[in-house]
Amino acid sequence: MNSTSISAALARFTTNLQLSDVPQAVRERAKHLMLDSIGLAFATTTFNYSRITLAAMQELGSGHASVFAHSERLAMRDAMLLNGVLIHGLDFDDTHARGVIHSTASALPCVFGLGERENASGADLLTAYLCAMEVSTRVGAVAQGGFHKAGFHPTGLAGAFGCTLAAARLLGLDEASATHAQGIALSMASGSLEFLQDGAWTKRLHPGWAAVSGTVAASLAKHGFVGPGAPYEGRYGLYALHLNDAALPDLSIATTGLGDQWEIDHVALKPIPACHFTHASSDAAVELHKQHGLSGDEIENVIVRVPGPTVDVVCEPVSNKKRPANSYDAQFSIPYIVAAGLLKGRFTLDDLDDASLADPAVLSLAQRVNYEVDHESTFPRHYTGEVIVFTRDGRRLVQREAINRGSSDRPLSNDDIVAKFFDNAQRAVSHERAAQVRDAVLDLDRMPVSTLAGVLRRPD
User: Name one Pfam family in it (predicted).
Assistant: First the structure.
């Protein structure tokens, strides 16, 4: 096993990390990121796809693992898969900008599931979560947006490697075994963007599947299963296989600054329930609504300037984007989101219900929303957006958001995250119940995982 490989360096970091090595502010931010995702899990229980996923997992068998906001218990890996769906299903969860990855959606189901089974402390869970976040974001960042261009979802691909090392940490693997585990995960990591063509549900499965894959890989390695030694930089490694024959990227991104530069500081929180690539454009549209209050009849047409690498995700195919078939289509549609912002001055979960998706005024305006590539964008550091409205009386109204709200350069505060948590959790439970969950999550490093699990489950 090559001691200078990326997998060896990442294994060394994660097996040796102590919670005391992590700055207090990073630890606090990590707990707030978990809180954000748990609030989303509670909100997702009100949607049909969560009930369908639960039924499918129950058909596979029962177990003792907890599911967020449910009284039902499942086998551990099935609970991980469902918890990933609950966190990521609304596409309202955190995003690491350079990695273009929803890291918590895989990391939290993994460490929670294994932590509960292993009777771990909350401090152990938090340490493993930090390991997963550092690894998955860095592995994603190496691709520099290339995974998306090749049709792969980084949350599934890179998330599997972060989960592998988090699982290795909780299972007590040594450095050599943790290195093997990453090689094993290479044959499990997956995630296709084909869902973008028709609004299919498969994206929701990717983070939970990454958690399952990482757990299986770590368990195999623990028992002596041998994995490839160069899963990242190898001839048939992660990047060579998933970047469409592009030149090998800067692999040093995966390991530079480990233990000194915390990628969790660069994880962005979503202020609206849609693909992060749409946020700046949405905010620009909302600001134009506040300034001018235009009706649909007053608008001749709209141009939205977006970063080039995001076009295939939120602007194409044009026919799908201008008339979303379902809520998932809408969350990845610049025309729909901008039209809603211009006419309603908002974009919330309420704008994803059936009545909103059929709103004739919004759909009519969406037909007049077109896009241009923004050659001045600072993507992927920022997911920029500019909305230009041409009115029927000859005005040209412009609003540009150069730094998307919620990004590391324009972050939501921890108090903002708590407020978002309550907004989401109270769609399913009372304020009092949500407050109990908040207190438990923010105090998790001072309690066993079993106590946290009892609070997160729905009472029988």
Answer: MmgE_PrpD_N
Q: What are phi and psi of 399, to 5 degrees?
A: -140, 125
**Tell me: domain 6-270+421-456, CATH 3.90.170.10, correct?**
no
Which residue type occupies 395? Answer: R
- What's the token pair of residue 237? 């490694």
The residue type of 341 is: G
State the greatest distance between any 2 C-alpha atoms of the chain, in Å, as a whole number: 73
Q: Are 135 and 10 in contact, with CB atoms under 8 Å apart?
A: yes
pLDDT at 257: 95
Chain region(s) in the chain for CATH 3.30.1330.120: 276-401
DSSP 8-state assignment for residue 247: P
Which residues lie closer than 8 Å to 24 by C-beta, 6 or more apart? none
Question: 111-137: string of b/e by CB count within 10 Å (b at 16+)?
Answer: bbbbbbbeebbbbbbbbbbbbbbbbbb
Confidence of residue 113 (pLDDT cuts 50, 70, 90): very high
CA–CA separation, 86 and 47 (whole Å): 10
What single-letter amino acid sits at 443?
D
Per residue in 247-281, pLDDT tens? Answer: 778 999 999 999 999 999 999 999 999 998 999 99
C-alpha 33/C-alpha 399 separation (Å) is 30
pLDDT of residue 3: 61
Burial label, 24 (beta-carbon count in 10 A; 0-12, 13-18, 19+) = exposed
What fold, for 276-401? 60s Ribosomal Protein L30; Chain: A; (3.30.1330)
CB 37 within 8 A of CB 87: yes
Distance of alpha carbon 321 from alpha carbon 160, whole angstroms: 30
Whole-angstrom Cα distance, residue 71 to residue 454? 10
How many residues in total does the chain contain?
460
Q: What are phi and psi of 230, to 5 degrees?
A: -130, 65
CA 291, chain centre distance (Å): 32
CATH 1.10.4100.10 location in the chain: 6-270+421-456
Residue 275's nearest CA partner among 208, 325, 338, 323 is: 338
**Residue 159: closest CA among 238, 251, 233, 223:** 238
Residues whose CB is less than 8 angstroms from the CB of residue 72 and which lie 6 or more positions away in sequence, other chains included: 54, 58
Q: For residues 308 and 372, what is the distance between their CA atoms, to the nearest angstrom?
A: 8
pLDDT (tens digit, 9 = 90+) per residue, 188-211? 999 999 998 888 999 999 999 999
